[in-house]
Design goal:
single chain; 225 residues; alpha/beta; Rossmann fold; seven-stranded mixed beta sheet; two-stranded antiparallel sheet; 7 helices; binds S-adenosyl-L-homocysteine; binds magnesium ion
């Protein structure tokens, strides 16, 4: 078994609309490949499915070897603050003119269908806090790449970080320890609290991606310390 992206899916990932650099996507794929045999993975922040292809590729490989891997990906598909009209990361082609709001769900659906990953990647459409409040399943891998404001980042940490199983991995995107490189909330509201809780230790870092391993506690119980 190789642990790099299968060439056909790498092509889809590179072509997909979104915000996942190829090297960080490969890292995401590697951690998903390690973890998916042990339980479902969950991503917060689907957008148009770019990172979901890296995760789904790992699921396809695990399932080809007899596994039953699945990746859930949560998004209300209305965009983050920085995706709205007038902001830096706005794309007018993902606006639904009828409702006058962003809607990345159709693009996501086309992207995942074209990649052939509809069986592996399951979209959960809704607010992260709402889905988290009703979530009950331990995760082999959690990937947070959702809203980058202070409150959304804090909510994502509180809602999801405790669902990682012991030995499981927690990947966080857009972590910028140096404020000159980017916004602070994923660093201050997710990355640091995860380490300070004592439940996580850092195992990998690449670009703005950080990968932590759960070293103590029980999935679903509040994070200690
Ligand atoms: N992982 C994607 C990029 C995600 S961009 C990629 O690889 O390209 C961040 C996404 O988080 C946006 O699509 C936005 O709609 C979503 N988001 C922001 N805040 C959210 C919230 N509170 N609940 C659900 N989704 C949210
Ligand atoms: Mg990101």
């Amino acid at each position: 078994m190789t642990d790099t992206m299968p060439p056909d899916l790498l092509e889809h990932a590179l072509a997909a609309k979104g915000f996942m650099p190829p090297d960080e996507g490969e890292l995401l794929h590697r951690v998903a490949r390690e973890r998916l045999p042990h339980g479902p993975a969950l991503e917060v922040g689907t957008y148009c499915g770019k990172s979901a292809i890296y995760l789904g590729a790992a699921a396809r490989q695990v399932n080809a070897a007899g596994g039953s891997a699945v990746v859930f990906t949560v998004d209300h598909h209305r965009g983050s603050e920085e995706n709205q009209a007038g902001w830096e990361h706005h794309d007018p082609t993902v606006v639904d003119p009828e409702v006058g709001m962003m809607d990345t769900l159709p693009t996501f659906r086309r992207t995942i269908a074209a990649a052939g990953l509809e069986d592996q990647v399951v979209a959960v459409v809704g607010r992260s806090t709402t889905v988290a409040a009703h979530w009950r399943t331990p995760l082999s891998l959690l990937f947070i790449d959702g809203g980058h404001g202070e409150q959304p980042a804090r909510d994502d940490f509180r809602g999801w970080a405790h669902w990682v199983m012991p030995g499981g991995l927690f990947a966080i995107h857009d972590v910028f320890p140096d404020p000159a490189d980017g916004g602070r909330p994923p660093y201050e509201q997710i990355y640091l609290p995860a380490l300070e809780s004592g439940a996580y230790e850092e195992v990998d870092a690449l670009g703005s991606m950080r990968v932590l391993r759960r070293v103590s506690g029980t999935a679903g119980d509040p994070l200690g310390g």
